[in-house]
Write a structure and sequence with these properties.
Strand content: under 5%
Helix content: 40-55%
Number of strands: 4
Number of domains: 3
Order of helices and strands: HHHHHHEEEHEHHHHHHHHH
Number of helices: 16
Radius of gyration: 23 Å
Largest sheet: 4 strands, mixed
Strand order of the largest sheet: 1-3-2-4
Structural class: mainly alpha
Length: 387
């Protein structure tokens, strides 16, 4: 361990969080570049503390002889290419840590109160290659029949699927940035979701910065991982993954959301353009998912798929603008609406029950939810739980 901060670690910390020395000149020091270059006086401990806060790196790491290695804490299901980072961003790393901490507490709490194991975790492990059977298991568990999303909007479809998943005992969190730190955005290009398998407190995290249609597929995909008893981080592309590990989850999610029988019935009763529009209405998935299903099930050929896809891609850039969350008068999302979306229904209920039984201290409840004492009380009041 060094007596002064390691210049190489300072440089690594800035690169890891995507910041430049110039961006830290007002919040940390105008001498950050000099520290990296090893020129002049080394940073004081107070300055290192500011540097740690700005880069989301623990203070002790700056005094190590070697650059820290902070690999992803869980399995990585993503397919990396030259443009993707080789290590997780501080944002992804911290969100996974938060969810692992919550899961650790939930697991102990549920065991202590005598909760039963969730018998569906890993229940499809031996039949991963049978997408129809796995999707049937998912459909029966979630009690969502084919066409369940037909008469609701895409945002409502995401909420309904999430509620169905939480109803069977899965804790679903969602967010587009780390906790309440609006400056720490979760990049969809890095990940769309992750899943932490557990027989008592399984967790799904959904990157809500994504389009609703993509969130719908991600939720189904992550739930499929739980049926296979798997933990990991996903980049679930709208057109399905090319990575072998993900094929079973993609196939199960696709069959659950856009059943083959539905595709055949619709395409056999109308022209291709109308069939695609009807499947979009019935399922609320993205257009490219419908196109993939139509092609894979033999209703359009590769040339037709390419033509439809080019048209879809031209319109895709406007999708997120049309699907913005509820916003406050200053243009930002409403605070308690965001908390409700982030925490879901099941986690606050568990926190509330633990408080009422005096199993959990209020100070620990604030830490687990990421809320201040005042906002904690108001959030639970709005949820009909008076603490």
């Amino acid at each position: 361990m060094r007596n002064t901060a390691n210049p190489r670690v300072i440089e690594w910390a800035l690169k890891r969080c995507g910041k430049t020395p110039d961006e830290l000149k007002n919040t940390v020091s105008p001498r950050v570049q000099q520290w990296i270059d090893g020129e002049g006086k080394a940073p004081t401990f107070k300055q290192v503390e500011k540097l740690a806060k700005a880069t989301h790196v623990l203070v002790p790491y700056f005094y190590q002889d070697e650059i820290p290695k902070l690999p992803l804490q869980i399995k990585d299901f993503r397919t990396f290419d030259a443009e993707r980072p080789k290590e997780p961003s501080p944002e992804l790393y911290d969100v996974i840590n938060q969810c692992l901490s919550r899961q650790d507490w939930l697991n102990g709490y549920l065991l202590d109160i005598g909760s039963d194991k969730l018998n569906f975790i890993g229940s499809c492990h031996g039949i991963q290659n049978d997408a129809v059977q796995c999707a049937t298991v998912m459909r029966n568990l979630l009690k969502l029949d084919p066409g369940w999303a037909a008469n609701i909007r895409r945002d409502a479809a995401v909420r309904r699927l999430r509620e169905a998943i939480e109803h069977v005992g899965v804790y679903v969190y969602a967010g587009s940035y780390v906790g309440n730190s609006t400056g720490r955005k979760l990049r969809v290009e890095e990940f769309r979701g992750f899943v932490l398998s557990d027989e008592y407190a399984p967790v799904i995290f959904l990157n809500s910065g994504d389009a609703y249609s993509a969130q719908l597929f991600t939720l189904a995909h992550e739930f499929a991982h739980l049926l296979f008893g798997e933990t990991g981080v996903d980049d679930v592309s709208a057109g399905f993954s090319d990575k072998r590990k993900e094929i079973a989850c993609d196939a199960t999610a696709a069959e659950f959301l856009v059943p083959a029988a539905m595709v055949h019935n619709v395409f056999n009763s109308m022209e291709n353009d109308d069939a695609i529009a009807e499947l979009l209405r019935l399922t609320k998935v993205s257009e490219v998912v419908v196109l993939r299903r139509a092609r894979d099930l033999g209703h359009i050929n590769n040339a037709e798929f390419d033509g439809f896809y080019r048209d879809y891609a031209a319109r895709l850039k406007n999708a997120l603008k049309q699907e913005e969350p509820s916003r406050s008068s200053d243009g930002g999302p409403r605070f308690y609406t965001l908390q409700q979306n982030h925490l879901g229904k099941l986690f606050p209920e568990s926190i509330f029950t633990a408080l009422q039984s005096e199993y959990l201290l209020y100070s620990d409840a604030y830490k687990l939810t990421g809320l201040s004492a005042k906002s904690f009380k108001e959030f639970f009041r709005r949820e009909g739980m008076f603490v």
